[in-house]
Structures are given as structure tokens and as C-alpha cells.
Amino acid sequence: MNIIKYPKKEDWNEILKRPNLGDDMVNQVVPEVLNDVKTNGDEAVRRYTSKFDHVTLNDYRVTEQEITEAESLVDAELKRCIQIAKQNIEKFHSAQKTSRKVVETTPGVFCWQKSVPIEKVGLYIPGGSAPLFSTVLMLGIPAKLAACNQIILCTPPNKEGKVHPAILYTAKLVGLNQIYKVGGIQSIAAMAFGTETVPKVAKIFGPGNLYVTAAKQIVAMHGVAIDMPAGPSEVAIMADNTCVPSFIAADLLSQAEHGADSQVILFTCDEKILPAINKELDLQLEALPRKEIAIKALENSKAIVLRSIDEMLEISNAYAPEHLIIALDNAIEIAELVINAGSVFIGNYSPESAGDYASGTNHALPTAGYARGYSGVNLDSFMKKISFQQLSKYGLFNIGPVIEKMAEAEQLMGHKNAATIRMNAIINES
Amino acid sequence: MNIIKYPKKEDWNEILKRPNLGDDMVNQVVPEVLNDVKTNGDEAVRRYTSKFDHVTLNDYRVTEQEITEAESLVDAELKRCIQIAKQNIEKFHSAQKTSRKVVETTPGVFCWQKSVPIEKVGLYIPGGSAPLFSTVLMLGIPAKLAACNQIILCTPPNKEGKVHPAILYTAKLVGLNQIYKVGGIQSIAAMAFGTETVPKVAKIFGPGNLYVTAAKQIVAMHGVAIDMPAGPSEVAIMADNTCVPSFIAADLLSQAEHGADSQVILFTCDEKILPAINKELDLQLEALPRKEIAIKALENSKAIVLRSIDEMLEISNAYAPEHLIIALDNAIEIAELVINAGSVFIGNYSPESAGDYASGTNHALPTAGYARGYSGVNLDSFMKKISFQQLSKYGLFNIGPVIEKMAEAEQLMGHKNAATIRMNAIINES
Question: Are B34 and B218 in contact (CB under 8 A)?
């Protein structure tokens, strides 16, 4: 890790810059694939699956038989663990349900908001080296709790045209049964525009690489909602001399192993802890199968020494990390002052991997500073709020003159008349 | 209005199509202006203000003096009405506050979600023919209730370099004091990227024309959140023979007067009501100052006759209108079955203009079918939810093995180790 001591505030922006993810290929390839799938549907999906995933699939919907087969391939212990994680995630997300509150804003004027499930949602589960069945839990469980009517799942096939059994097992456990073996840009296009096989959805969720993220952002300009733009994973840790250096090193590495573009940052006001953490990093790195990836990620990473806990808090809020671990003596107190972060882990016994898998919180979180304006995925992400109002005659009389005056001042006489005509009718009745 | 009787379901999509809003100029002009402001800051803002708003402003921040002057120009009756509307909007949005619920998902594992205000938000209030001071209420009030730290407001100047007094009065009443006389694409760029004068914000709110909407969608790809893509206003009405034709006509016209591209749709299963509504439309049109605009909008508009209330509900949900007025005998019952709409107005005495101004609900709502996946602006729009977790040693022991097993199955051994190393330390302690 690069150690930066007592940086001046005017240099923070530069120091906190995320690795640049620009890639000219993205701007070329993504719109091309999106348009092709929009125009040519399944035929284009199959063509890109051949090209990018190196397998040709005529029917790319996962069959009942494939799911049954997958169930038999997942070991019992892993199944039990996934079930426990599911219970915790369900508990946490169920608590996010809100009840309707009818507000009588003026006598006779009743207004309320109602959470209504988004009818059709699409979940994207990336492929790649590891089978991210935990993401199936994180997206599938709140979608089911929200009671979305149609939940589809897209995930790329491997070269044999198969999906990892743990993904299929988890999908079935959660209650998802519309699963398509399609990945990358072509899957985002299929969910956004619909094909003969894949239904068009109203909102697309899920992490992905540069291409998938760019595809999500572009379809968001054409009628579909997206959960958030997702970038490489990142963690920031605030630590003082009450931290356990081996824990800190383990947390830094657990983020660094995600990818060479992952970013890990350590904030401390106690530079004496750094040698022990560095020593632990070296030691633990040796045992890590994804050592090469982690080493690359650590090259982008920084230990920043600051003057006070207040300054640590300020710089962390400026950075807006996806994950923030607070390993400080007064961690709970400081947690209350966090303004920008995706998910916060308090104290020495709350590793980030708890939230990744099993504590119950969601791991689909805003990266790249998006935590300044975005929430992570939660129950609300699968609902939209509709407002309702009902005015009695008395209610209309109470606010009618206000409507009339304001509409007139905005030069919208039709708006005014919609109140006037009703008030006149009520007067004529009586 | 074009009358369409008993359309086949397979034709619904075609019938419900929104007017095409394509404009090649948008794709050219918007990226150019955004980049220019990003690079050249205030200088570019001033240049585009000269070009598009036909006025040259050196300092485009609204002064205290301008606000004081504006206050004296708004008549007392309008002030009183704006204050009443403010009270109702505050009441309705205050009721949306949620409290923190700590969930112990597993013994010793404590998780919670906390709503935290978005630190810096930007509100856009369009200029044009009418001063939309009501939108200042709709965006400013929830921003203040959410306790956003910095709330800036951009609105275009007129040719004299002034902002309409009602806008400035309302901004002051709501408690906004950072107001900039800048509109259009250049204002979105200024808020997204920051200039010497305008601070960069994390989320941008507010309606606008095609250019403003495109600008919002593009900056949303570069680190800023936006409330929603906003298109031309629209209303759908479900009516049966218990409706009052003059009220229906007034509501249709109140939407049609917004702009030639506004869309108004009437669903009914009782075609006998149509002649009376048409007669009322002609009558009321005559008295409307914005008659020419309304006539154009009505050309795009449709009265669709359906076989049953169920079918009306189904087609309305497929259309996903911004505003939905339910003028049916069993309006309350039917309202419960609405899946896709921005805001719903129940019964004969709830005109859409009530929600536009004074009932308390928000009028910044998803158009163009976006109600399928988006909420209208509400208190939550100005907050993001951060998740927190704290595990005791006991809690970590309870879920540690689950974390280990799942991380291993995802081939993320660093994630596993962050749990293992802590569990080992606890064992060694005891």
C-alpha cells in the first residue's frame, strides 16, 4: 500500500480518485449490440452468445431438468449455508416493509402513498471465474418479498452451455423459475427491449463488468429503470490503535481479491499501526489463491494518515466508499456521523464478508462515489410509490380557492377551471 | 378526441404509443453544451445564457436584494395561497419519514438501515411562458424536510435578466437561498460538474424540455443521480356513467393546455357518456386562453371504449399514466388495483389540479410509461439508505461458518479468511 501522510485538504480529490475505467471499445461495442438485439431479438442473442461465450444455444431458457440436475450437484453443507443466509436476508429485508399512512392534509383532503411492486424485473448474475450465487440471494429475495409479478434471471452459460449448479439451486430456493442462459450486453438488451424468448422488464438489477454497466446506463435512457451504475468493488477502513492488524489486513485483502481494479483504502490517525498491518498483508497474501489479482489491486491502494478522527470521517464522507469498516474505539458513535457510504461495518467483529453473504444486509451497493446519491439495493428498489388522493366536496371547497389562485398565477386556466367547475356544481346542488 | 371502440388486446401497444419526441438536434447540441460547461465553467455558462436566453449576466447568482424586491411584487392573496399549499405539502411529506428498525437477524448479528440526506442536491425550475413556482414547493419542501445540507436552485432568466418574483418568493419561503439564473442544458451541466459559481451536486431534480431531460440522462452516466427522466405531461381518466361530463372535460383540458405534446386519454366502458363530454370539451375550449395548445394536444388524444372495468384497469396499467383520475362508481375499490401510475385521483371531487398545487402530494411524477419502474418525487428521493451492521463475537461465531463455506464456494478465499482469522483469535483468547 502507498502511504500518504497528512495530505492537504485541497489534494484530497486527487488522492481519492478511483482508477480510470475508460475503455474506447465500450462506446463502440455496447450500442451496436444493444441495437442488434433490439432489432433482431433471439437471433442476435444467439449470435452474441456464440461470439462472446463460445457456445451455441438454440433454446437458452433453463429447463426444469437442468434445475433438478443442479440440485443434486450442490453439496448438502453448502445448501444448508445458503438456506441460513436466505433466512437472515429475508429477516432484514422484511423489516423494510412500510405501512400506508393516510394523511388528512386539510379537512376533507385525504392523501396517501402506497408501495406497489414493480411488475416485471430482470436480475443479472455475472459469470466469470466464480459462481456468484450469493448475488442471486441478494436480488432474488427482495424481489420475491416485494411480490414482483414476473422476475427473470439472466446469467451467461459456460462453454458447455451450462450454468453453475449453485446458481440454479439458489434461484430455485428463492423461488425464481424464469432463468435464461444469456450474459453480457446481449442480456441487458434482451431484458430492456424483450425478445421472442425473454420478456421486456421495467427495471434491471445486478452487477457486471464495464460493458454490462454501460449497457444498463444506455437502456436507462430508453424506458427502463436500473438499480444503479455498478463499478469495481471497494472498501475503506477507518482504524485506530484499538484495531487488530491481522483483521484489517484480512479485510483489505478480501476486497483486493475481487479484481485488479478493486480499490482498498485505509484511513488512520495512528500511523504506528501501519507496520503491523503491512506485515500481516504480506503474510496473508502468501496464502491467497487470488494473490496475483490482490497484488495488482493493492498497487492502486492507499493508507492515508490523518490528524484526527474528525478528519478521517470527513475524508471518508468525501470518498463515499461502497463498504466502510469502522475499527475505532468509539465505532458506534462515529458510525452515526457517516454521511456517504453504501454499507457500514462497525467494530472488530464485523468483517465485510459478513454483509457479502450472511448477516442479512444487501451486498448490491453503490460504488465509485455513487453512494453520495444512491442507496444500495433494498426492498424499496423493487417497489415504486404511487400517491393517491381523495377529496370530499368539503375538502375541495377548502383548497379549491388555493388551486384557483395558484393556477391563475401560473397562467394555467384549464387547471383553475377543473376546481371552479366542481365548486360551482356543488353550490348549484345545494 | 379520437374515439376507439373495443380495440383488440394485441393492438393496445400501438394505440397507447406516446407521441414520438425524437429530435436530432438534441443528440448534437446536448453533449456539446455539457462538455463545454464541464471544460470552461462559468465562461461557458454565460456564453450559453447569452445565446439561448438572450441576456448577458456577469454574476448570475440571485442577490438578497432581488429576493427582497420579489417579495414586494407578489400579491398578498397569492402569498397566502402558496403558504397554505406549503403547509399541506409539508404535512404529506413529513408523514413519509421512517424510523430505524434494528434487526437481530441471528443472535449477536445486528443490522439496520438508516435514511441519510443526500448532502448536495440541485433543483431545476423551468422558465418559459409561465412561472412554475409550484414546482419550487414540490422540490424544495422535501429537500428541506430531508435536511439536505446544500440545496441549489437553477432557473433561466428572462430577457431582462430577471427571475419571476413568484419563484423567488416561494424559494425564500421554503428556505432556499442559493439561486442561480441559469437554465437549460447549461444549468444541468453546471450542477453536474460544478463551475466557479455553481457547486457540483450529487442529485439533480426537476422537469424540463427535451434538451434538459436529455442532459439529465447523459450526466446520470457520469457520476450524478437524477430524479427521473421527465417527458410531456399526461393524464388518463377512467370514467363510467356516474361521472360528471363537465368535470371530465375540465380535467382533460387541464392536461391538454400544458403543451401540444401533452397526451390525454379517456377510458370508459360506457360509450353513452362520450357525446356529453365532447360537447363540454367544445364549450370549455372556447373559454380557454391556451386554446390553440389544447386543440393540438387533443389531436393526439383518445377516448377508448372497453368492455368492462377489468379491461379498463388492465389497459390503464399497461399505459402507466403519470396522472390517473378514477371517476367510477366504485372508485376506491378500483384504486386499490392500480399497478402502474404516478398519482391517482379518486372520485368526482379530486381534480388533478388539486395534486398539482395544494392537496399535499407531489406533482413531480414519472411520465412516458416510466411509472412502471419509477416513483414520483417524495421524501425518499432526497435521502439514500445506508445499511449498518455490528456483530458481537458470539454473532460472528454464529454466522462465521456460513460465511466461510459460501466464500469458499465462490472461490473468494480472502473473504473466507476475514471470518476465519477473527474466529481463531476469539478461540485463542479464551
Answer: yes
| C-alpha atoms less than 13 angstroms from C-alpha of A337 in its C-beta half-sphere | 16
Active-site residue B32, yes or no? Answer: no
**DSSP-derived pairing of the beta strands A109-117 and A383-391:** antiparallel
Report the b/e string of A66-90 with b at 16+ CB within 10 A: bbeebeeebeeebbebbebbbebbb
Shortest CB distance from B410 goes to which of A131, A375, A388? A131
Q: Which residues between 293 and 322 in chain B have a beta carbon less than 8 angstroms from any beta carbon of chain A?
A: 294, 317
Q: Which of B322, B352, B363, B404 is catalytic?
A: B322
Q: For residue A21, what pLDDT band results from cuts at 50, 70 and 90?
A: low
Question: How many other CB atoms sit within 10 Å of the CB of residue B256?
Answer: 31
Whether B396 has its CB under 8 Å from any CB of chain A: the answer is: yes
Of the candidates A116, A395, A402, the beta carbon closest to that of B85 is on A402
Q: Long-range contacts of range A5-9, CB-CB < 8 Å, 24 or more positions apart? A: A5/A271, A5/A305, A6/A305, A6/A306, A6/A307, A7/A304, A7/A306
Cell 425524437 appears where?
A: B22
Burial of A10 (0-12, 13-18, 19+ CB in 10 A): exposed
| Rg, chain B, Cα only | 26
Complex ipTM: 0.96
**Contacts with A409 from chain B: Cβ below 8 Å:** 78, 131, 133, 166
B73 touches chain A (CB under 8 A): no
R_g of chain A computed on alpha carbons: 26
Residues 6 or more apart from B236 whose CB is under 8 A from it? B264, B265, B266, B267, B316, B319, B321, B323, B324, B325, B341
Which of B100, B204, B350, B367 should be substituted to probe chain A, the one whose Cβ sees the most A Cβ atoms within 10 Å?
B350
- Cα–Cα nearest to A346, from B407, B412, B109: B109
- Name the band, by pLDDT with cuts 50, 70 and 90, for residue B415: very high
The interaxial angle of helices A210-219 and A24-53, nearest 10 deg, is 110
Q: Report d(CA A196, CA A151) in Å as an integer.
A: 17
In the 3-class helix/strand/coil scheme, how is B177-188 assigned residue by residue?
A: CEEEECCHHHHH
Query: Residue B292 gets which letter from DSSP?
Result: H
> Among residues B180, B183, B176, which one has the least CA distance to residue B151?
B176
Q: What is the pLDDT of residues A254-278, one digit of tens each?
A: 999 988 888 899 999 999 999 999 9
pLDDT digits (tens, 9 = 90+) for B318-353: 999 999 999 999 999 999 999 999 999 999 999 999
